[in-house]
Design goal:
Keywords: Acyltransferase, Transferase. The protein is built from ten helices and 14 strands. It has 385 residues and is α+β, with helices and mostly antiparallel strands. The chain folds into two domains: 195 residues, 3-Layer(aba) Sandwich (Peroxisomal Thiolase, Chain A, domain 1); 147 residues, Thiolase/Chalcone synthase (Peroxisomal Thiolase, Chain A, domain 1). Strands 1, 2, 5, 6, 7, 8, 9, 12, 13 and 14 form a ten-stranded mixed β-sheet that branches. A two-stranded antiparallel sheet has the order 3-4. Strands 10-11 form a two-stranded antiparallel sheet. The longest helix has 26 residues. It is globular.
């Protein structure tokens, strides 16, 4: 039941919080934490420049002979240089109804998902049979049996592996999925939990749709998969040098369902992307994140590594201003957006891989992962190296 509030952007918050932390927050009970053992990204082989994709999207979405000035301006301002696509460029025009695009999602998603899982497990020095929980998220296609069921059998996971297929969280699912691994591992300390994100956003592009939402999505989104392997460790065990999840918080804002998501019809997933999203992020992220950090005795200045979902330049600017971040704090997000676009839930996982492997943060330093998604919702994950 929603608590009445004068602020339509205020999160849903019950009147009292249980012992151990605020509602929606998980901290380590009895001295346990969850540790990210490995994270790996898999990208399709088909890589294109933004200019190449601008003309393709113009061919697919605009009427023949239509002026492309606005389209080219949108693509030029998106902060994207290159993207990877599930299919070669010349295949998209031949895609028909939702059945065809979903079949393409299944075929490419299985290949990418298996590649991401295999690489992550190899990096963790684990076999598929050692996985106890597999969480699989995608918002760009649907299947029953789900991707995780097909991959579990295909890769040789145990018949008793626990599976959680997730649809609907969208871009927030990378951070939320890691948070849910953390929740699970606190109660299953001897187990291995894996998160797999498979997002083939190019297959949701709506042909002959020149709506602003479709054109903005076509300017930003790319394809990819990412997998995270995690296990539990004692809170005082700092031997690994790997990022550990210390606390998480989920926030769902009422009366904002219209801002982001899909309308689903015969043509598949038609994007909903409201121009007010950066305003909501700018208004809420600052106070909500400061409150979350304060519950852990921290402030934004204590965070050395920021892992922010690269929703687009305007969203990243809104986050930086709301938190008064120093120049360069969100460079990892801007780089990820430039080289692979917004890969929905896989993006923050790719950034986590980049910052962990390219320039590992100092031991003992704090990191903060955040992402936003349909609902409208946000997820905060506090990390420590």
């Amino acid at each position: 039941m929603r608590v009445p509030t004068a602020d339509p952007l205020a999160p849903v918050t019950p009147s009292a919080a249980p012992a151990g932390g605020p509602i929606g927050e998980r901290t380590d009970p009895d001295g346990w934490k969850s540790v990210v053992v490995a994270v790996r990204t898999a990208l399709p082989e088909h890589r294109y420049t933004q200019d190449e994709l601008t003309e393709l999207i113009g061919d697919l979405c605009l009427a023949p002979g239509a002026d492309r000035t606005v389209l080219r301006r949108l693509h030029g301002a998106a902060g994207v240089r290159t993207r990877h696509l599930a299919l070669p460029l010349d295949r998209y025009a031949a895609l028909g109804d939702f059945g065809e695009t979903n079949a393409a999602w299944m075929a490419a998603g299985l290949e990418l998902g298996e590649r991401a899982l295999t690489c992550a497990l190899e990096a963790a020095v684990l076999s598929p049979s050692e996985v106890d929980l597999l969480v699989c998220t995608s918002i760009t296609g649907i299947a029953a049996p789900s991707l995780d069921a097909r991959l579990a059998s295909r890769m040789g996971m145990r018949p008793d592996v626990k599976r959680i297929p997730v649809f609907g969280l969208g871009c927030v699912a990378g951070a939320a999925g890691l948070a849910r691994l953390h929740d699970y591992l606190l109660g299953h300390q001897g187990e291995v939990a894996v998160l797999l994100s498979v997002e083939l956003c190019s297959l949701t592009l709506q042909q002959r749709d020149d709506s602003p939402a479709n054109l903005v999505a076509g300017a930003l989104f790319g394809d990819g998969a990412a997998a995270v392997v995690a296990h539990a460790a004692r809170a005082d065990d700092h031997r690994s040098g790997r990022p550990a999840v210390v606390a998480t918080r989920s926030l769902l804002y009422p009366d904002t369902e219209h801002l982001l998501g899909w309308t689903i019809g015969a043509g598949g997933f038609r994007p909903v992307v409201d121009a007010a999203i950066p305003d909501v992020v700018g208004a809420r992220i600052g106070p909500d994140l400061r409150d979350f950090l304060a519950a852990q005795g921290l402030a934004p200045d204590d965070i050395e590594t920021w892992i922010c979902h690269p929703g687009g330049p305007r969203i990243l600017t809104a986050v930086a201003h709301a938190l008064d971040l120093p120049d360069g704090a969100l460079d990892s997000a801007h780089r990820a957006l430039a080289v692979s676009g917004n890969m929905s839930s896989a993006s923050v996982l790719r950034i986590l891989e980049d910052v962990t492997t390219d320039t590992p943060p100092p031991p003992g330093s704090w990191g903060l992962m955040m992402a936003m998604g349909p609902g409208f919702c946000v997820e905060f994950v506090l990390l420590r190296w």
